[in-house]
Amino acid sequence: MKKYIEEMPKAELHVHLEGTLEPEHIFSLAERNNISLDYKTPEEVVAAYDFHDLPSFLTIYYAAMNVLQTEQDFYELAYHYFLRAKKDSIVYVEPFFDPQGHTSRGVAFDTIIQGIHRAQLDAQEKLGIESNLIMCFLRDLSAESAMEHLEMSLPYKDWIIGVGLDSDEKDNPPSKFAEVFARAREEGYLLTMHCDVNQVDIVDHIWQCVNDIKVDRIDHGINSLEDEALCDEIVKRGLGLTVCPVSNRFVVQNLTSAEIKTMLTKNMKVTINSDDPGYFRAYLTENFLALIEDAEFTIDEMKQLNKNAFDVSWLDTKRKQDYLNQVEEFFESTV
User: Fold this and answer.
1) Nearest to 82 by CA among 149, 34, 133
2) Which residues are within 8 A (CB) of 74 and not within 5 positions of it... i.e. 6 or more apart?
3) pLDDT at 57 over 90
4) What are the CA-CA distances from residue 213 to residues 19, 148, 149, 166, 313 (Å)?
5) Which residues pair with 90 in a beta bridge?
6) Mean pLDDT across the stretch 271-295?
7) Maximum Cα interatomic distance, the chain, rounded to a whole number of Å
8) Of 35, 122, 149, 256, which sits 20 to 30 A from 113 (CA to CA)?
């Protein structure tokens, strides 16, 4: 089983590039950019990763971003992730980036996007990893700030496939950003939003995503299982859900394995992802393996979770089928 999971061609649809920043890289960037840190060694950084809920994680997450300053920094951030993705047999990825976390520190939007895009091109050419970039808005900032950053992105529309919404969900419902996402849709972007596990009013937030924002995908979305009508609507619309098991274990002390199995039985298009693997210490393969250890997922279930990711990706129909064929060929030759 471990060999199959490690080697099967995979897609990842929920990974924050800033969340792939490894402790050793934090230190090297801090030294290069003359930034002082509160920690003396990478090991001390890891020891500080004591997350028990979403706010406690975000506090450390945003502090670490300070080391990202130049176009080369953002290139390295993204390319380091692509190198790790290659080890996980990832062939396609739709990574997130959070420009407001950087422009608020004086880093130009152009600097961020150009560094990431250059890494995407190199990953395609040198590693064979195809990618499409998603720009996320920080929901604990204003809708006006989100709209400003949407405007900043428009010269780079060809480099960005869609927009998302992340960060602290408390008192920041999807409806707060309805105008921003409507404008993004007009500009040709696809839409997704985070609906993190066990947040206040979370079921209502998922309904807002589905009915008001009319998202093309839902990030996390585990709590949809609390409402049978909501589950039915998600299935009817064919919406993908990008679940992150190891991340869930940090935030809600549970891999949500049982919920993922339930979603599969309901024919919901649930997918497995790593979220912020530099902090949660588990990349995509390790998330799959954690599920197997926790709940004895079968080969067929692993295969379906992986196929779902390609199926609900934002690739065109032909590219989706090409990758789905790769998955089938892999299992025919190895299982």
Assistant:
1) 133
2) 68, 111, 112, 114, 115, 116, 119
3) no
4) 26, 19, 18, 15, 19
5) 10
6) 96
7) 54
8) 35
pLDDT bucket at 335, cuts 50 / 70 / 90:
low
Distance CA 8, CA 303 (A): 9
Q: How many of the other CB atoms lie within 10 Å of CB of 335?
A: 11
Determine if the pTM surpasses 0.90.
Answer: yes
Write b or e for each residue in 270-303: b if 16 or more Cβ atoms lie within 10 A of its Cβ, otherwise e: bbbbbbbbbbbebbbbbbbbbbbebeebeeebbb
- The radius of gyration of the chain's CA atoms, rounded to the nearest angstrom, is 19
Domains and CATH numbers, the chain: 2-334 (3.20.20.140)
In the numeric block, the tokens 């300053």 are attached to: 69
Tokens of 52: 């028990």
Among 309, 319, 317, CA closest to 8: 309
pLDDT at 48 over 80: no
164 and 137 in contact (C-beta within 8 Å)? Answer: yes
